[in-house]
UniProtKB/TrEMBL annotation:
Entry EC number(s): 2.6.1.9
Gene assigned in the entry: hisC
Record-annotated Aminotransferase class I/classII large domain positions: 28-358
Catalysed reactions, as listed in the record: L-histidinol phosphate + 2-oxoglutarate = 3-(imidazol-4-yl)-2-oxopropyl phosphate + L-glutamate
Pathway, per record: Amino-acid biosynthesis; L-histidine biosynthesis; L-histidine from 5-phospho-alpha-D-ribose 1-diphosphate: step 7/9
Protein's recorded name: Histidinol-phosphate aminotransferase
PANTHER family: HISTIDINOL-PHOSPHATE AMINOTRANSFERASE, HISTIDINOL-PHOSPHATE AMINOTRANSFERASE-RELATED
Source organism per UniProt: Phycicoccus elongatus Lp2
Claim: Kinase is one of the keywords in the record: no
Length: 370
């Protein structure tokens, strides 16, 4: 950055580099947890028809309240077993913007947010860009499981740091680890003045019996559950994230959102996809099967995959994770180096993509294993 610009920059942003996984043109891209399956043709047709129908009206601002979309999102969540009303739903351009709205409203200078790392790297970035102080909590303190988080450890850390906002991520990125609801309940109790965010971007990929924090919403007005259409819904390019919370909390978000933040076309695309929810989620089981296959085949190779409730697997026991990342890339397979020494993260793709990764890894394991 030119020094004149650097001098103008907010002091807390100086010297930082921008977030972003490399967007490389490779045969097998398994690095950003996207859904590998293209949007089905009937949904493509529905999206096209709805955007076409809305196009002439683009001279007007969009429905600022996204009422129809929030109603349909509420119905989608309600179908999972917890009744949610449109007044409890907020939508924005990706769950990243949803999180930004939360931090703009409930964080800010003089306030702190606590997360348990390793977790989603955007949580500290969104926190600090809103002038909120980030506090790095720890996972894997008193649990047998790698990267687990116990209610006791979470409680102790929350009591010690007294944050204004707590981030929980379940299933957690990049580890794939789901949290027990006892952890969420314990954190809400241990931090009586904090907003508690549970980022459930990967909820649809959870194994049977893994509960959603949606089931805890009633009677807990400080709890927020965030979701996205970027992963299971195979709609990362459309940018649609949402949350469920108390209606009063939604009201608070109206104070910080830009007017008309969610474009007419974005609302139309999301509604088209939601009109075909079952079809859009058709690939989830296939992806889960590939995830489980990755876990078992990597184990057989002598590597150490972390059990996953998401659409990716973090695996360890690598001598030099960056060297292994490069060797995979040389074979046309792009995975994610998440910065945990000895570990890499791979998204579960189609059976063919997953085979390409596993074949390359089987080749590399003997020389790259710890
Ligand atoms: C991918 C991901 C998101 C999704 O972000 P969008 O802005 O909705 O695309 C949110 N949280 C976590 C933990 C993620 O991994």
């Amino acid at each position: 950055m030119r020094s004149e610009i650097e001098a103008l920059l907010r002091p807390d942003l100086r010297g930082r580099s921008a977030y972003g996984a490399p967007q490389l043109d490779v045969p097998v891209a398994l690095n950003t947890n996207e859904n590998s399956y293209a949007v089905p043709q009937v949904v493509v047709d529905e999206i096209t028809a709805r955007v076409r129908a809305a196009a002439a009206g683009l001279n007007r601002y969009p429905d600022r309240e996204a009422t129809q979309l929030r109603t349909v999102l509420a119905a989608y969540l309600s179908a999972t077993g917890t009744a949610v009303d449109a007044s409890q739903v907020w939508a924005a351009n990706g769950s990243n913007e949803v999180l930004l709205h939360l931090l703009q409203a409930f964080g800010g200078p003089g306030r702190t947010a606590l997360g348990f790392t390793p977790a989603y790297s955007m949580h500290p970035i969104i926190t600090t860009t809103t002038g909120t102080t980030w506090v790095d909590g720890m996972r894997g303190v008193d649990t047998e499981a790698a990267f687990g988080l116990s209610a006791a450890s979470a409680t102790e850390q929350v009591r010690r740091h007294r944050p204004d906002v707590v981030f929980l991520c379940s299933p957690n990125n990049p580890t794939g680890t789901a949290l027990g609801l006892d952890v969420v309940e314990a954190v809400i109790e241990a931090a009586p003045d904090a907003l508690v965010i549970v980022d459930e971007a990967y909820a649809e990929f959870s194994r049977p019996g893994v509960p959603s924090a949606l089931t805890l919403l009633t009677g807990r007005p400080r709890l927020v559950v965030t979701r996205t259409m970027s992963k299971a819904f195979a709609l990362a390019g459309a940018r649609l994230g949402y949350l469920a919370a108390d209606p009063d909390l939604i009201d608070a978000l109206r104070l910080v959102r830009m007017p008309y933040h969610l474009g007419t076309q974005t609302q139309a695309v999301a509604l088209a996809a939601l009109a075909h929810t079952e079809l859009m989620l058709d690939t989830v089981d296939a992806i889960k099967a590939q995830r489980d296959r990755i876990v078992s085949e990597l184990t057989a190779m002598g590597l150490e995959p972390v059990p996953s409730d998401a659409n990716f697997v973090l695996f360890g026991h690598l001598r030099d994770s960056h060297a292994a990342w490069q060797a995979l890339l040389d074979r046309g397979v792009l995975v994610r180096d998440v910065g945990i020494p000895g570990y890499l993260r791979v998204s579960a793709g189609t059976p063919e993509e997953t085979s390409a990764f596993l074949t390359a890894m089987a080749d590399l394991a003997p020389t790259h294993k710890e």
